[in-house]
Structures are given as C-alpha cells and as structure tokens.
UniProtKB/TrEMBL annotation:
Superkingdom of origin organism: Bacteria
Protein name per UniProt: Histidinol-phosphate aminotransferase
Keywords: Amino-acid biosynthesis, Aminotransferase, Histidine biosynthesis, Pyridoxal phosphate, Transferase
Cross-referenced InterPro entries: Aminotransferase_I/II_large (IPR004839), HistidinolP_aminotransfase (IPR050106), PyrdxlP-dep_Trfase (IPR015424), PyrdxlP-dep_Trfase_major (IPR015421), PyrdxlP-dep_Trfase_small (IPR015422)
Domain Aminotransferase class I/classII large: 36-356
Record has Metal-binding as a keyword: no
C-alpha cells in the first residue's frame, strides 16, 4: 500500500475549522428550515432589475470563460472612482481578495495585526499562509485605532486589517479619524481597509482615494448594497504596482460572465442602490427602537445589519438558538464582549415585522 503524502507543515498545523458554518449546513444538521435569513448580511431586497436582466442575457454565453480583465466593468469603476483602470484588482468577492493579499505580502511567521472578534475570514487566510495574528480587543464597541497602530509597530506587522464600517459591530470612523490612523501605521506596514459596507455609511466615512499610496488596499464588493452575494464579485483599489503584482497570482478566469454583466448593470442603476440604502436606514432605526423596547441596546450601525446587545453571552446564545428553532437565522459574534450581541441583517419591511414579533415572543422567555 502506498504511503500517505504529507501535507505542507502550515496546513497540517491548522485547526479543522472554517470562518463560517453555512446556514444550509445547519439546516441539514438540525432539520430546521430557515424562514427568515437574517444572519449573513445578504441583501434580501435582491438585485437591480437591470442587473437581473443583464445576467439572464449573459447566461446564454456561460459556456465561455469570462473576460479575464473585466474590461468593461474595470472601465466603469475607474470612471466612478476617478482612478486609472490599472489601479483595480478583481476577485470572487472580498473573501478571495483577502486571500490574495495574504499570499502576496506574507512569508511564514510574519506578524499581522487585527481586531479580536473582527471579520474571521481575514484571519483564516492569514493563518493559511503562515502569518501570526496579533489581536486587539474592541474598545467601547469600536475598533481601537490607537492600539491597532501601536501593536502593528511593536510586532513589526506586515499587515494591519480594519473594516470600516465594521463587521460585526456596524460601527464606523470618519475619514479624518482614518487619516490620523493611517499616519500612525509604520511605513512598511500595509493597511487593508475593508469597505464592504461603505454604501450604507455616511458620506464623510471614507477618506479620499489616493491611488498613488502604495501602503493601502481598499476592498469593495457587490455582495451587500448591490444584492449580488451569490454572484461572487468584488474589487480592490490599490497602487498600480500592487495591482500588477496581483496579476502574478490571481485566478484570471475567476469571475464569470454573468457576474461581470450584472455588476456593470448594477453600477448603471444607482437609483436602485439608493432605495436599498434608504430602506436599510429605516430598518436600522426600527431595530434600535425594538432593542430599547425589550430592555436591550443596539450599537450605532452604518451597515445593513445591527448588533443588538442583549446583556450577556448566555442570553445571546439562548436567543440565537431559540430563534433558530423558529426558523430565524441570526448570528452571535464569537468573542467577548461582542458575544453579548445578536447580529441581525436588515431585511425587507415584512421581514423586519416578522422578526420583531418573533424576537419579542422569544425574549419574554429569555427574561424569565
């Protein structure tokens, strides 16, 4: 019998885990069917009708590879962001882009700074390429910018990661605060600014895009406000030399024709995205009011979800599991103090009404 080929040392030493257990897997394991899918921050408002039509038309060409350079989409995004096309990097969502960033910048043993309880897929990729994570706890429900910068300096980190607006809290920083943070990061440390939820944030949230700054990569996605999570398409804004380096390692045919067509059509339908953003803002206010009525509190949010602090990790776990038994999928962050929270996506008005009713009924049991 042939011997078993050994895995690479990095892979062999990794825990048997993934960043998120998909809700479909939990459905199969528990036998519960999801009726309200409010745990993955997908947009239940759907996508632009123009995007839907464009994707249907492109489906007839799905026997062909997609344009490896995403030329039409690249041109439109360059126009919208006032950058040259060579400053854009494309991937199958921000998740793939984070993996490419880790691969491009990290050698085994290199230090990386992030927040304790921040987006776990980034950590997943860092560890997958042998990086060493240094995690800074949140402070007052927000990323601790001062400690993130000082930790990056003390550890000699190659990368510091910050989501703005944040996942899982929904909190955010202004452009001025981010520029001050940027100035405190060591020169040879890359800032990865994850802006997956930027469309939902106040206008003053994002600092001006400087395509000539080699020390920052900003990631964006069509999964949230554009309602195209299943199409798997995202992009990054970076220095042209950074983008050129990614050409050496990226999956050149990783974005299919339907995704490219849908994303381009969605960009040309800004009115649809504005309506989604407006409805989400209304839903955030409803969730905050609901939390107050139940004796809980909601974190201020500039995303398409709200983190509701229910008072304790035990109560949060109880409510999550009880809601699941009634077909409501929400998530609870994995580390203190964030594990006191239910993270709930802002759904349609009908979904929000149904969620409020079920949470009220479930919370009565939790408070007894």
């Amino acid at each position: 019998m042939a011997g078993k080929p050994p895995f690479a040392d990095i892979v062999a030493g990794l825990p048997a885990s993934v960043p998120f257990v998909p809700p479909e897997e939990t459905e199969r394991r528990t036998g519960v069917t999801i009726n309200l899918r409010l745990g993955a921050n997908e947009s239940t408002f759907g996508m632009s009708p123009r995007a839907w039509e464009a994707m249907q038309n492109a489906a007839s060409e799905s026997h062909l590879y997609g344009d490896a350079h995403c030329c039409e989409l690249r041109t439109e995004l360059a126009r919208l962001h006032d950058v040259k096309p060579e400053h854009l990097i494309f991937g199958s969502g921000i998740d793939e882009l984070l993996g490419l960033i880790a691969r491009a910048y990290l050698n085994p043993g290199d230090a990386v700074t992030t927040s304790l309880g921040g987006y776990p897929t980034f950590n997943y990729h860092v560890e997958g390429y042998g990086g060493i994570l240094h995690k800074v706890p949140y402070r007052n429900g927000k990323n601790d910018l001062e400690r993130l910068a000082s930790t990056a300096e003390k550890t000699g980190s190659k990368i510091v990661y910050l989501a703005n607006p944040d996942n899982p809290t929904g909190t955010w920083f202004t452009a001025e605060e981010l520029q001050a943070f940027r100035s405190r990061i060591p020169d040879r440390c890359l800032l990865v600014l994850d802006e997956a939820y930027i469309e939902f944030a106040p206008a003053e949230t994002g600092p001006p895009i400087d395509p000539e700054d080699p020390g920052i990569i900003r990631t964006r996605t069509f999964s949230k406000a554009h309602g195209m999570a299943g199409a798997r398409i995202g992009y990054a804004l970076a220095h042209r030399d950074t983008a050129a380096a990614f050409e050496k390692i990226r999956n050149h045919f990783g974005i299919n024709r339907m995704a490219q067509a849908g994303a381009l059509a969605s960009l040309k339908d800004p009115g649809f995205v504005r309506k989604v953003v407006q409805s989400v803002a209304e839903g955030r206010r409803e969730y905050a009011k609901l939390a107050e009525e139940l004796g809980f509190s909601a974190y201020p949010s500039a995303t398409n979800f709200v983190a509701i602090d229910v008072g304790s990790a035990e109560r949060a776990a109880f409510l999550r599991d009880a809601l699941w038994q009634r077909g409501v999928f929400v998530r609870v962050p994995g580390v203190p103090p964030l594990n006191r929270c239910l993270r709930v996506s802002v759904g349609t008005p009908d979904e929000r009404k149904a969620f409020a009713r079920i949470l009220r009924e479930t919370a009565e049991k939790a408070m007894k």
